[in-house]
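Onboarding guide, step 5: your first structure request.
Type a short instruction followed by the sequence, for example:

Predict the 3D structure of this protein.
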Amino acid sequence: MSIAFDAERWSQVKTVAREWWAGRLKRPIIQLRLAGRDPQRPAPKQPLQSFAACYPEQVTAEEIVDVWDYELAKQEYLGDAFPVVWPNFGPGIIAGFLGARVKPEKWTVWFEPAALKPLADLNLTFDKHNYWFGRIRDICRSVQARWQGAVQVSMTDLGGNLDILASFRPGEELLLDLYDHPRDVKRLTWQAHDLWWRYFDEFNAVLRGPNPGYTAWTPIFSEVPYYMLQCDFCYMIGPEMFDEFVKPELAASCRRLGNAFYHLDGPGQLAHLDSLLTIPELKGVQWVPGEGQPGIAHWPEVYRKIRAAGKLIQIFSIDQLDMIARQLGSAEGIVVIDTLPLSRKAEAEELLKRYGVR
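The system replies with structure tokens like these:
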């Protein structure tokens, strides 16, 4: 196999992650992947797509996995990084499992209802014959056959449960439903919750044997079930509605996960941060300011609040790690995930040395 990783490295990844999740690691987790390595194998038949949903049906699961193998072989893994693939079918693919139309584009995937039903007539049910569900399951099986646990497979982007519901109540419909039909919104939210967990368990049943552990669309490694939970819909609602319609289901998922993170996306979600931080089982927060906003180093009050609540922090840029560590007083409890060109290897190794990462 041309992927530059071995069993000893996997053992180190697991040990470090275990200590970090437990709050015992006295340094940050630093995952650095260097792009540009000689893959030492022929190019694949198919091109790399930004979303796996973009591959037409006639492209086999094995061909998709071969593309990913080639991409992994072009990387070096420094620090706490590890080889990982993510079957990315768009944010909230459960909507597709439940009958929404899936419309892949180059940079995103859209979900549209096949028909707009009155909320009272809407029910969400499991369909084991759904094409998209079967497609992802086939890819997961092909991944395990190809790598036999040498590569971590991420959970597909299942979505946030109100985001899934919004795929069936688009535009302003779901916002109006909160006022006009609150009981039906709650009924469907818990239907979505139960289905979310069924799909989570169905995919893990395929992956669990060889998979080294668990990860999600943000590839933090965990030896117990982990997911980056989200609710982009709550950008449009206030704290009272968040606590009524979003938080109960979110807290229930945190209790079921061994390691739960939350994707805090944009300034509109900051109104919910205090409430989020009161969920005992929520382990950490990923703060993403969003397009057109100052970068992550310009929000020290957000990170201080997260740290003060005893939660972990995830960021995407090593260029910001030093500044955030200074703002917080230390880099403990931070995981940074970044990809750099091979030309920055010396710089990357110096940073790892400075933070005590071997």
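Each response can be followed by summary notes, for example: The mean pLDDT is 96.
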